[in-house]
Amino acid sequence: MIAIFAAWGLAWLTPCSAHEVRPSYLEVREERPGEFDVLFKTPMRGQLRLALTATFSGSAEDLTPMTRRAAVDAAVQTWRFRALVPLRGQTVRIDGLQNTMTDALVRMVFLDGTNWVRRLTPQEPAAMIPLQQTGWSVAGVYLRLGVEHILFGIDHLLFVLALLILTRGTWLLVKTVTAFTVAHSITLALATLGYVHVPAAPVEAVIALSIVFVAGEIVHLQQGREGLAARAPWLVAFTFGLLHGFGFAGALREVGLPEGHVPLALLFFNIGVEIGQLLFIAATVCLSFWFLRFHRSRIRWASVATSYAIGSLAMFWVIERIAAFDVAHRFWGGNT
């Protein structure tokens, strides 16, 4: 059995909300020759917005004033400008990014149907717009997005962790991980491509509830009552994996998909998620073997403590997300 003492520390030391690492998003779309519509979305916490500004190295003139509005956990700025020199070959920069701990995804769509996607970081807050972007560069950007999303998506990791604690035997572990992968890959593709539409807020609440369920199954198993998750963890992984796929799709929709490279971007985002998931599982198994070697007498205590820590944190998320959904529903319902 995989019993992870280190996971107890993970559950309490991580911030009590998932998906806190959110990139800024800059979309520049050419609507007429030389004229571009700009959408710049920056994360917010409460009423505070990251002090970021998008600039280009070449001369330009604004055609419309900048408009600002608040979206869910983000500030959105939109405007239109005319480039007095071609944008291709210019340098795009996110001023202020070097003072943050977040990244920015830049997406440019030109009138001829070509596009360019680039991820800017605090270490590299600027990049030159090339004449044409290759598929490999798109693949690299979305591969990294997938890895980072799963590794910073604490709710998804805790669900996988709880399943690992329940799963006994190597073959059953392989079946469980494969079932989770297949399930979230299906709904990630369907939701991202627009075939299925599910509201994000209820999905996030149910994802947290799925963690509570599996954590409860661990406690039942320790009490000698083997539930469905212990008998068939692969079935539970597949069922709830469908919901987690909708969560991944929501994150991917926030940054968008590059036109002309949609299948490639979707594929490599999913591959990145799987790489991140396997890295987490490998680290967890290594910690488990270490704990078994030096603290075998405390394995039962560690397993129970881990399950209560995971369940408590997940229940907090359930309440938090339902409350946020209710507040948003009242606000928008009262302004329609």
TrEMBL record:
Pfam families (alphabetical): HupE_UreJ_2 (PF13795)
InterPro entries on file: Put_HupE_UreJ
Keyword Hydrolase: no
Keyword ATP-binding attributed: no
Name of the molecule in the record: HupE/UreJ family protein
Keywords annotated in UniProt: Membrane, Transmembrane, Transmembrane helix
Recorded superkingdom: Bacteria
TM segment ranges: 149-166, 173-195, 201-220, 232-252, 264-292, 299-319
